[in-house]
Each structure stands twice: as structure tokens, then as C-alpha cells.
Write a structure and sequence with these properties.
The complex is a heterodimer of chains A (294) and B (625). Chain A has 294 residues and is mostly helical. Chain A has eleven helices and two strands, in the order H-H-H-H-E-E-H-H-H-H-H-H-H. Chain A has one domain. With 625 residues, chain B is of the alpha/beta class. Chain B folds into three domains: 220 residues, no CATH class; 169 residues, 3-Layer(aba) Sandwich (Rossmann fold), CATH 3.40.50.300; 74 residues, no CATH class. In chain B, strands 8-9-10-5-11-12 form a six-stranded mixed β-sheet, sandwiched between helices. A four-stranded antiparallel β-sheet of chain B has the order 4-3-6-7, covered by helices on one side. In chain B, a hairpin with a 2-residue loop joins strand 6 and strand 7. Chain B starts with a helix and ends with a helix. Classes of the chains: A mainly alpha (294), B alpha/beta (625). At the A-B interface, helix 4, helix 9 and helix 11 of A face helix 6, helix 13, helix 15 and helix 17 of B.
Chain lengths: 294, 625
């Protein structure tokens, strides 16, 4: 029972971090209809920057979020305007291939700068645990999960309480309609992409404490995040949160009860099962395809 | 079968027996390429004999592995429009199949190559089953998950694959004098077979259906294309030779491990080969593969591989998507075509020809036979979108031989009713009976085969096909043997041309559908539906968004087709058009049929007036109060 409870709590905590990372991915998809395959590469990039900051100044990785979020926001905004902007209205294939190309390119750059060896950020508390009854909860996991939930909450507030949030949601639901009522959908798309990348920046800083990483880790991360948004329903923010918590718990249960080496397979299983049984995911809606959006 | 088409529609000038457009076009393009292709093929085939340079033999061998992968990928990505980032997985799968069989069962690796092909084909078919419901983005995600899943299995299933330790294959036993010849020529043979397969697919019904799926999958289903069968077969076809090539490749490099065999860069290089050379072209993927492998070698030699490969291939993928989306072959073809077509005027500005309008300036008033038994019957149909009851218990019948109208205010559920009858949507409750059979639950293509044809509110032609190909695309029946039939048989081309003459679009047969005006597209879509020789033709707003002359002409065509036995169900907002043409008229409001009868009866029905004007009355009351 203790073992189960421990796996459940740790799964939910790591799920919170996944939720923050998947939120950016699903937001970008919802507004722009672009699957950002480079999302994993953005978060590993953020993890490497966090590592460098920590190494150079001793800055706490969780505090580094304050720097990384605006930095990655700017990076996302520039990258969007330099590349993805050109194919915003194109069918799915080009955008997936483009962001995939960007992911490889960023992986290459990270390899050149930081080398292809495993890195991890180890602040003082990374070896401590909270002991509650018979439960051992590593402090890094607890802090990371809580910070992720805090950032995710503020993202949620921006999306629901601000004009920008309304514009983003309007652009997601009906781009033509949003244009008509005065929303500049093109610049909203750029901001959305930048917000998505910024959230990957925050998530990457947290992830740097939780998992060791190297440039090639982004494949595993993007697989995880894609599994989450497919399960939750692509484009749905609450769906991403539900999917992330499910994945976090499912991974921890696999580690605890089956074998650690199969944990990476959980998101693939999610993808296959969901696409076979309920292609729209848990909270996704099947759009009416007969109503043209010409 | 009452062959209305062949006999009756030939009033226009008969132009059958012309050269089908695909052949006409390829004749233009053949000359500059033929010489290059023949020379390159001869060079590659003779190379190992002419030169004993193993560096280049190795390079050509790897190029051919990429080429086989890219030619296979072309079937699903180029023709059917499904982008896969996991094509490299089939190379790994084939290599592992051979490696595991040789180590666990024994024998020469060559014996197991066909097994590798069959296994890849079967696994790809399974992927096709999962992909039956996953389109676009979901499918791409599926292929990524597929690749990583195979890698994970190869890593963790120690007893079968020896995990990360990998599998070592025996050293070839033939004389060193033959160098890599057996690998070289078996790959050359597989490449030739792959090319033959894609060439054959492109010119038969199977390829036509795949292109229809790429252009508009839902529409393809409504014109009789059994989309799941096509997709599953296409996935298999895209993987069989790739699996075999993977087996040869594994034997060639003699060491098989999860990281090397399921490396995503392999998939990237395959998809880059296809994109760079040109999707949906025959030779493009081969050209692309040789360029990519050359780049691969150069990167390894000049920059030490590793990160440089990521930078170069990642960067190239982004650049190709942004700046060369069509690929080399189509781009060059475009230049050649433009150079040849210089000085010729386009067709777009010409007037519609065909039926002489003045002769029929005063068409006789419609007196449709409404006495027939119902051809289509809808009982208690319900469809909800979330909380919205779009269709809420609609029941009506369409008498055989009638021109029935379905009218109603905006949002009353007319188009949804169409989708439920046509099968693009499934109702939550209710029954649809057609020609004595219950058809709700049948897929759209079965309904098309039974004689149900429909057009869409916003026309949905296959934009990249020519007008003639669009009209020939519908299938009146389906069986697997049909897939191998010529894409455009002489008989079909003739009938399609007659139908195009009937709608007055004969001159546009070789024009790309996307280049037509909206009104012209409506006419072509009508001809396309007629190709199905349907018993019931359902038109969604045939008069919407087109000029009055054309509306009049469409009305005439409907009358003429009706006189020859076709039943119509028409959704339309243009009341003069409906009331002058249709009888009976069904009125839908809030998802229910609230009235039906002759145009006069319906016009006087207070419920109908209320449905159309009700909200205005309600608005006025508070003002007066």
C-alpha cells in the first residue's frame, strides 16, 4: 500500500511538470494547428541553459525560471517569425516536418555547445527527501511539482483573464471570426508560439533537476508530450493536464510494478490505444468537417 | 442498369477516344528526362563491373537503401498524403527479421529476405488499421510512436534481439573478387521492383483512389472509394520492399543494434530524399536519395558526422519545407512546362459551351412524377453536437422520380441531414432507408455503390486532379480486383467526356480542378456525381454563390436528368429556384420536418411562415407592447 501511495504521489507530482510542458504544446496546436515537434528540444535547451547558469553562478534551477521564461519567450517569438510564420496556413505535413527539422537543428547546436554527454543539475536539496509516515518524497520532486503547478496556474489565468488570453482562445476557435472582430490573428499566433516555448523554458528548468539529460533526450520528451496531448485531446488545455497526470502515474506504476526500462513505452502505448479506440482523446471534440472554413 | 449517360448525354459533340490527360502530359515531360534516366540507370547498373572502387560501391548501396525507402514512402506520403516520420522503422524491422531468423533458425540471410518483406508488409497493414481513424497530425504522431516503440522493443526484448548488444551476422561466403556485388545487385533489383510497383499503382484505380484520399478523404468516401481498404493496402505496399531492403542492409553492415537500426535520422534521410526529389513523382525519390547519401558521406568525411549531421539534415529539412516544398523534379517540370506554354492563352476566360441556352429559353414548367413509391425514407433521425440538437427527429420520404426540395431557415439542420443520409456522419438515433434497404450504419462508399450521389455546399473537387480525372474518380462498385484496373479506361474517359459535355465543361477536361471558378466547380461536381450513375442525386445548394444564368442552366439540367429517371433531393435557399423546380417541398426547422407538400401548399402553411419569420415577430412584440 505504501509502495502504491508513494508511486501515486510521485506520479502526480511529475505529472504536474508534464502538464506544464504539454500545456504549451497543446496551446500551440490549438491556436495554430501546428504540432511543434521541436517542443522537446526547446525544453532540453532550457535545461542546458539552467545547467550553465547553475554551474557559473550557483543559481537555483527553480529560481532560474524567472530568467528562462522571458528568454525562451523571446527565442520562440524570433523563431516563429523567422520560420513557421511562412507556412502558418499550410496543411499539416509541412509544419510537422519544419518543426521536426528545427528539433534536429537545435539538437545539433546543443551537441556542439554542451557535448553529447549526460548532464544533471544537482542543487543542495536534490538528495533530501520529505518523510511523511512511511512515505519518502524527494524534495526535488516536491518542489518541482509545486513550482510547475504554480506556473501552470498563472498560464491558465493569463489565458482566461486577460485580453490576450481571449484573443488566443478566439483565434483557436475561429480564426476568421477573430480577424473580423479586430484580433490580429497572425501576431496572436506569434505570441502563442512564444508563450508555448516560454512554458517549455519553465518546464525545462524544472525537468533539469528531475532527470539527467543530453541533447538527444528531446526525442523521449516529445514522445511523452505527444502521448499526453493525444490522450487528453489535442488542443485541449484541461485535457493536457488530465493526460499529463495519467502519464505521470502510469510511468511511476510501470517503474514500481513492471520494470523501469518499460516506462518509456507508456506514452507510445497511450498513442496506439487512444488512436485505435477514441481518436479525439478524452476531452477532444470531433469538429464538424462539413462546415467549410474557406 | 439504365445507362442514362452513354445514350442520352451524347447530344453534345462526341469527343471520345482522345488521349487521356495523364498520358498527354507525360509526353510533354518525357523527353528531357528520358535520356537522363536511361543514362543514369545504365551507369548505376554497370558501375561495379566498370570500377572496383569500394568507396563508391558502398555509397551507391546506401543510396539504393534510401531510395527504396523513399519510393515506398512515396506510396503513402506522395500519393495518399499521409506523412510518416517512421519509415526507417521498416528498414530496422527487416534487418532484425533477417538477423533473428539467421541466428535462431539458421540458413543463409538471403533465404530470410522475403520473410523480412512479408513481416514489414504485415506490420504496416496493422499500422494502417490503427490509422483508419487517425488522420493528419494524429497519424504523424502515430508513426513517431511506432518507430520509438520498435526501438524500445529491440532494446528490451533481450531474449530475441540481444538488446543493446545487437546481433552479428555471418561474414559473406562468396569470393572477395565479387566485392559487394550480391548486395549491390539485389538492392538494384529491389529498387527496380519498388519503382515498378509505384509506377503501376499510379496508373491504376488504386493510385487514383489514393490521390483522391490525399486530396479530400471524406469526399473520396462519398464517391465510392472504400478508404480503409485503400489505406491498409497502401501501407503494406509502402513497406514490403523496404523491409526486404532492410534485410539486405543488415546483412551488408553485418551488425544490427537498436540505436543504429531504429535511428530517427534514417527516417529523416528517407523523408528528405522524397521531399527533395519530389513527392508523387516516379523518379524524384531516387534522385533525392542519391543526393542525400552523397551529402551524408560528405558530412561524415568533412565534418566528422555526429552533430554536423544533425545540423545539416535538420537544417535541410527546414529549408526544403520552406523554400522547395514541391521538390526538384516537379519544380524543374514546372519550368519546362512554363517554357513550352509561353504565348498560349489560358482557357479560364472562355465562355461556357455546350447546351444552347436560346433553344430552351422557356423551359416547360416542371410536372414531376410525385406518385412514385419512396426511394429514400428517413425515420426519426437525430444528431446532437454537444448540447445542440442539429437534427431532432426528422422524418420524411423522397418519392422515386421526384425533384424533392429540403428547405428551412439557417441552422435548421439541412446539411446535417445530408451528411447523415450520405454517411459522412453517423446519427445518434433514427433510420435511413434507401431503395428498400436500411443504409444507416453502412459506410459512405457502400451508399455510393447503392446509388446515392451527393454534392457539397462548398464544392469539394480533388483540387490537384484534372477535371477529367475528377469525373473518372468515382467508383460504382468495389472489389479488390478492381484496384489493378487502368485508372482511366477508354470507356470511362469517353463517358466522362460525355458527362462533361452535358454540363458544358467539355473544353476544360485537362484543366486542374483548383483552377476553375466556383460555378465551374459546381458543374464538374455534378458531372462527377453522374459518373456514379446514382438513383438519387442529392445537391447541397446547387444555386448558391453562382450567377443567375448558371442557376437557370443548372435548373434545366436537373429537369432533363429527372425526365430521364433520376430522383433529386435538393437543399436550397433560392426560393424562386426551388418553387419553380421542385415538388414536393419539405420544410425543416429546428431539426424537424414541420411541413411537406406542393410548393403552393408549403408557401401558405402558417407553420412555415412562422419558422422563417418567427423570430422577427417575437422581436416586434416587445416594441409594440
Amino acid at each position: 500500500m505504501t509502495e502504491f501511495l508513494q508511486a501515486l504521489i510521485l506520479g502526480l507530482l511529475i505529472g504536474g511538470v508534464y502538464a506544464l510542458l504539454a500545456a504549451g504544446l497543446t496551446l500551440i496546436f490549438g491556436v495554430m494547428n501546428v504540432i511543434n515537434i521541436a517542443h522537446g528540444a526547446f525544453l532540453i535547451l532550457a535545461a542546458f541553459i539552467t545547467w550553465s547558469l547553475w554551474r557559473a553562478t550557483g543559481l537555483d534551477p527553480l529560481a532560474a525560471i524567472v530568467l528562462l521564461t522571458p528568454l525562451m519567450f523571446a527565442f520562440g517569438w524570433l523563431l516563429y517569425n523567422a520560420t513557421i510564420r511562412r507556412i502558418r496556413r499550410a496543411p499539416p505535413a509541412p509544419s510537422v516536418l519544419l518543426t521536426f527539422g528545427l528539433a534536429l537543428f537545435i539538437e545539433g547546436i546543443m551537441g556542439v555547445i554542451w557535448g553529447n554527454t549526460s548532464h544533471s543539475v544537482r542543487p543542495a536539496y536534490s538528495t533530501d527527501s520529505f518523510k511523511i509516515g512511511e512515505l519518502f518524497l524527494p524534495k526535488a520532486q516536491v518542489y518541482g511539482g509545486l513550482v510547475a503547478i504554480a506556473v501552470l496556474t498563472s498560464l491558465y489565468l493569463v489565458l482566461t483573464r486577460s485580453w490576450l488570453g481571449r484573443a488566443i482562445r478566439a483565434s483557436a476557435v475561429n480564426p476568421q471570426g477573430a480577424e473580423l472582430v479586430g484580433v490580429n490573428v497572425a501576431s496572436v499566433a506569434a505570441l502563442t508560439f512564444a508563450i508555448g516555448v516560454a512554458s517549455a523554458g519553465a518546464g525545462g528548468a524544472i525537468a533539469s533537476v528531475l532527470y539527467p539529460f543530453l541533447p538527444g533526450s528531446h526525442y523521449q520528451w516529445i514522445a511523452r508530450l505527444l502521448g499526453i496531448i493525444v490522450l487528453g485531446g489535442m488542443g485541449s488545455l484541461p485535457g493536457a493536464v488530465i493526460g499529463a497526470l495519467c502519464l505521470g502515474v502510469a510511468e511511476l506504476m510501470t517503474v514500481t510494478y513492471i520494470a523501469p526500462e518499460w516506462a518509456t513505452g507508456v506514452p507510445y502505448l497511450f498513442v496506439f490505444v487512444v488512436l485505435l479506440l477514441r481518436p479525439q482523446g478524452i476531452l477532444g471534440t470531433r469538429l464538424r468537417q462539413d462546415v467549410a472554413t474557406a | 442498369m439504365t445507362d442514362v449517360g452513354a445514350a442520352a448525354y451524347s447530344e453534345g459533340t462526341l469527343k471520345g477516344g482522345g488521349v487521356p490527360p495523364s498520358r498527354a502530359r507525360s509526353k510533354v515531360l518525357r523527353s528531357p528526362w528520358t535520356a537522363v534516366i536511361v543514362a543514369a540507370t545504365l551507369f548505376i547498373a554497370a558501375f561495379p563491373v566498370l570500377s572496383d572502387d569500394l568507396y563508391y560501391q558502398n555509397m551507391f548501396i546506401l543510396s539504393m537503401v534510401f531510395a527504396i525507402g523513399a519510393v515506398g514512402l512515396n506510396v503513402i506520403t506522395g500519393y495518399a498524403g499521409y506523412v510518416s516520420l517512421g519509415q526507417g522503422a521498416f528498414i530496422g524491422l527487416g534487418a532484425y527479421a533477417v538477423g533473428v531468423c539467421v541466428n535462431d533458425i539458421g540458413g543463409s540471410p538471403w533465404v530470410w529476405i522475403p520473410v523480412a518483406g512479408l513481416l514489414s508488409g504485415a506490420v504496416a497493414a496493422l499500422l494502417g488499421v490503427v490509422a483508419m481513424r487517425a488522420r493528419g497530425h494524429s497519424f504523424v504522431i502515430l508513426t513517431i510512436a511506432f518507430l520509438f516503440l520498435l526501438q524500445l522493443l529491440a532494446t528490451n526484448w533481450d531474449s530475441l534481439t540481444n538488446g543493446t548488444g545487437g546481433i552479428t551476422l555471418p561474414i559473406p561466403t562468396w569470393s572477395v573478387d565479387y566485392q559487394y556485388w550480391p548486395f549491390y545487385y539485389s538492392l538494384l533489383g529491389l529498387l527496380a521492383l519498388s519503382l515498378l510497383l509505384t509506377w503501376w499503382i499510379r496508373r491504376n484505380k488504386f493510385g487514383m483512389g489514393l490521390i483522391a484520399i490525399r486530396e479530400d478523404e471524406d469526399k473520396a468516401a462519398t464517391v465510392g472509394v472504400s478508404t480503409p481498404t485503400y489505406k491498409i493496402l497502401a501501407f503494406s505496399a509502402s513497406a514490403v520492399f523496404v523491409g526486404m531492403a532492410g534485410g539486405v542492409y543488415g546483412y551488408y553492415i553485418s551488425f544490427i543494434d537498436p540505436l543504429g537500426m531504429f535511428n530517427i535520422l534514417l527516417s529523416v534521410q528517407i523523408i528528405l530524399s522524397l521531399l527533395l526529389g519530389g513527392r508523387a513523382t516516379l523518379w524524384g525519390p531516387v534522385l533525392g536519395a542519391f543526393i542525400i547519401e552523397w551529402l551524408n558521406e560528405t558530412t561524415n568525411n568533412e565534418f566528422g558526422g555526429g552533430n554536423a549531421r544533425l545540423l545539416i539534415f535538420g537544417g535541410l529539412l527546414a529549408l526544403v519545407v520552406l523554400f522547395l516544398p514541391g521538390g526538384i523534379v516537379p519544380t524543374v517540370n514546372g519550368w519546362i512546362e512554363r517554357w513550352r506554354a509561353r504565348g498560349q492563352a489560358g482557357l479560364a476566360g472562355e465562355r461556357l459551351t455546350g447546351v444552347d441556352l436560346r433553344e430552351r429559353a422557356a423551359p416547360p414548367p416542371a410536372e414531376p412524377a410525385v406518385s412514385g413509391s419512396p426511394l429514400l425514407e428517413v425515420k426519426g433521425l437525430e444528431k446532437r453536437f454537444g448540447g445542440v440538437r442539429a437534427v431532432d427527429g426528422a422524418s420524411f420520404a423522397v418519392p422515386e422520380g421526384s425533384i424533392t426540395a429540403l428547405i428551412g431557415p439557417n441552422g435548421s439542420g439541412k446539411t446535417t441531414v445530408f451528411n447523415l443520409i450520405g454517411g459522412t456522419m453517423a446519427p445518434q438515433a433514427g433510420e435511413v432507408w434507401f431503395d428498400g434497404r436500411r443504409i444507416d450504419g453502412k459506410p459512405p462508399w457502400r451508399r455510393a455503390h447503392l446509388g446515392l450521389g451527393r454534392t457539397f455546399q462548398i464544392t469539394r473537387l480533388f483540387p490537384d486532379m484534372t477535371v477529367l480525372e475528377n469525373v473518372v474518380a468515382p467508383l460504382r462498385e468495389f472489389h479488390v480486383g478492381l484496384l489493378g484496373a487502368d485508372a482511366v479506361s477508354g470507356r470511362e474517359a469517353k463517358r466522362a467526356e460525355e458527362l462533361l459535355e452535358f454540363v458544358g465543361m467539355g473544353k476544360y477536361r485537362d484543366v486542374r480542378a483548383a483552377a476553375l471558378s466556383y460555378g465551374q466547380q459546381k458543374l464538374v461536381e455534378l458531372a462527377q456525381i453522374l459518373m456514379l450513375d446514382p438513383k438519387l442525386i442529392m445537391l447541397d445548394e446547387p444555386a448558391g454563390g453562382i450567377n443567375p444564368t448558371l442557376i437557370e442552366r443548372i435548373g434545366e439540367m436537373i429537369r432533363e436528368l429527372n425526365a430521364r429517371g433520376k430522383t433529386f433531393l435538393i437543399v436550397e435557399h433560392n426560393m424562386p429556384f426551388v418553387l419553380g423546380l421542385c415538388n414536393p417541398v419539405l420544410v425543416l426547422a429546428r431539426g424537424q420536418t414541420i411541413a411537406s407538400g406542393s410548393p403552393d401548399e408549403v408557401q401558405r402553411d402558417p407553420k412555415v411562415l412562422d419558422a422563417y419569420l418567427g423570430e422577427d415577430f417575437r422581436l416586434e412584440q416587445p416594441v409594440g407592447a
